[in-house]
């Protein structure tokens, strides 16, 4: 039986908007800088292999910070952590803009990544704690916006910046965004530290953060080279060993950095599996789509970004309706399966497209895909918290965000290798298969009671 919809308070909407602005900067930065790689190679006179570390170092720093999120929120409170992370990201952006060599830029990108690594999990933690179950769907729609729009807006904005201004503006563009997020968040982000302060699990940190970073690096190397080189193999083995070591440690520790006992909860475990699989499909396909337009349709990075805009439109349409339907009906599993079906339907046209397929047909497919991604992601986020107490929201968010990161890196690597050894149709069919596989995990999700 549907429930009466509870109105979102203006303060909660303002909070969600401000948090989205700050968190979006980290994702936009990734896509903007990827467009600037060629320009940076020429500016510094460095080989491409060196300049690629500008993006790799940032990604690894972001990943390494994820495990600290839950502990930092409990120890210092969301207000302090939010402002600290924004300030660190701002400092890193300014330093990148004044970098005098490729080496300096890479070091400053690490600082930028360390500052921004906790911003996306913080967005979810704060909104989950503030919203309550009856508003979670609509409020978490704001989480979808940066995730879906950054891959579309970033290349367009990056192309405009690199084409019209100095490369340093690829980093300086973050400054007004972060300053605005800092100013607007005063009085809105108010969470203090927990009453019981958990000590930092140093041994767990020494195992988990490096393990994640090394594993992601191994997957990235595998995708770039197209085979299991010595570097990729070493990274994968070392990362897995460290993560297994953390697993043993966490189950023997009273207050681990990330409590793996959360996975005893059936609903949370289903969400975790879903996020992992869907992360591979989402980020893997977003790796393929710009390349498809650039290599098959001879589009520039700027044109490719514009051609991907329909997916952002579909995602925005989804955010308007899906969150509201989810809050009214609680039909988590049903909405998720419908979203996965739409995501598959929106990806298949790229798998069967020929050189003469009209761009308009692909644009319609992207609108459908964007709406499907929103309808898939949103229930997976809200279901994460369905059966957990608020005291475990931070740990649950950290855990699922880590799995999404690993799944995304794995999916991107696999699709990159398939593309190098095969073709775009083969890679897109694989993306379709990964998306369809997520339905198996979705079947384990409960439909929330709305009585």
UniProtKB/TrEMBL annotation:
Localization terms from the record: Cell membrane
GO cellular component: plasma membrane
Pfam families registered for this protein in UniProt: MFS_1 (PF07690)
TM segment ranges: 12-37, 49-68, 80-100, 106-127, 139-163, 169-188, 200-219, 225-248, 268-292, 304-323, 335-353, 359-381, 402-420, 426-445
Keyword annotations of the record: Cell membrane, Membrane, Transmembrane, Transmembrane helix, Transport
The Major facilitator superfamily (MFS) profile domain, residue ranges: 15-450
Example of a GO MF term: transmembrane transporter activity
InterPro entries given in the database record: EmrB-like, MFS, MFS_dom, MFS_trans_sf
Transport listed as a keyword: yes
Claim: Repeat is one of the keywords in the record: no
Mode of membrane association: Multi-pass membrane protein
Top-rank taxon, per record: Bacteria
Protein name per UniProt: DHA2 family efflux MFS transporter permease subunit
């Amino acid at each position: 039986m549907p429930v009466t919809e509870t109105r979102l308070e203006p303060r909660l909407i303002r909070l969600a908007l401000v948090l989205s602005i700050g968190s979006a900067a980290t994702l936009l930065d990734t896509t903007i800088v990827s467009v600037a790689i060629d320009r940076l190679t020429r500016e510094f006179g460095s080989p491409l292999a060196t300049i690629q570390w500008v993006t790799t170092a940032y990604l690894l720093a972001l990943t390494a910070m994820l495990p600290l999120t839950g502990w930092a929120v409990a120890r210092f409170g969301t207000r302090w952590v939010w402002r600290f992370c924004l300030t660190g990201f701002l400092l890193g952006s300014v330093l990148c803009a004044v970098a005098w060599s490729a080496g300096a830029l890479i070091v400053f990108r690490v600082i930028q990544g360390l500052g921004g690594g906790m911003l996306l999990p913080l967005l979810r933690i704060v909104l989950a704690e503030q919203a309550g179950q009856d508003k979670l769907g609509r409020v978490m729609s704001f989480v979808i916006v940066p995730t879906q729009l950054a891959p579309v807006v970033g290349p367009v904005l990056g192309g405009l910046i690199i084409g019209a201004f100095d490369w340093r503006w690829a980093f300086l563009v973050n400054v007004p965004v972060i300053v605005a997020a800092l100013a607007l968040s005063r009085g809105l982000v108010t969470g203090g530290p927990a009453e019981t302060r958990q000590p930092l699990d140093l041994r767990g940190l020494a195992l988990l953060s490096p393990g994640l970073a090394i594993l992601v690096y191994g997957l990235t190397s595998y995708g770039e080279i197209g085979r299991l080189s010595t570097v990729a193999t070493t990274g994968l083995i070392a990362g897995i060993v460290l993560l297994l070591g953390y697993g043993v440690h966490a189950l023997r520790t009273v207050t681990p950095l990330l409590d793996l006992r959360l996975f005893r909860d059936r609903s949370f475990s289903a969400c975790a599996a879903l996020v992992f699989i869907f992360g591979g499909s989402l980020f893997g396909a977003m790796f393929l789509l710009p390349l498809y337009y650039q290599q098959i349709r001879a589009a520039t990075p700027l044109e490719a970004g514009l051609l991907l805009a329909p997916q952002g439109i579909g995602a925005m349409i989804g955010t308007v309706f899906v969150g509201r339907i989810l809050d009214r009906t609680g039909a988590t599993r049903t909405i998720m399966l419908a979203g996965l079906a739409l995501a598959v339907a929106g990806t298949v046209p790229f798998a069967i497209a020929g050189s003469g397929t009209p761009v308009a047909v692909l644009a319609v497919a992207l609108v459908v895909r964007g709406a499907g991604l929103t309808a898939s992601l949103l229930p997976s986020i809200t279901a994460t918290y369905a059966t957990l107490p608020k005291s475990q929201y931070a740990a649950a968010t950290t855990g699922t965000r880590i799995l999404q990161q690993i799944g995304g890196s794995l999916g991107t690597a696999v699709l990159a290798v398939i593309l190098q050894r095969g073709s775009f149709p083969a890679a897109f069919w694989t993306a379709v298969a990964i998306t369809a596989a997520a339905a198996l995990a979705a079947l384990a999700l409960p439909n929330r009671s709305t009585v």
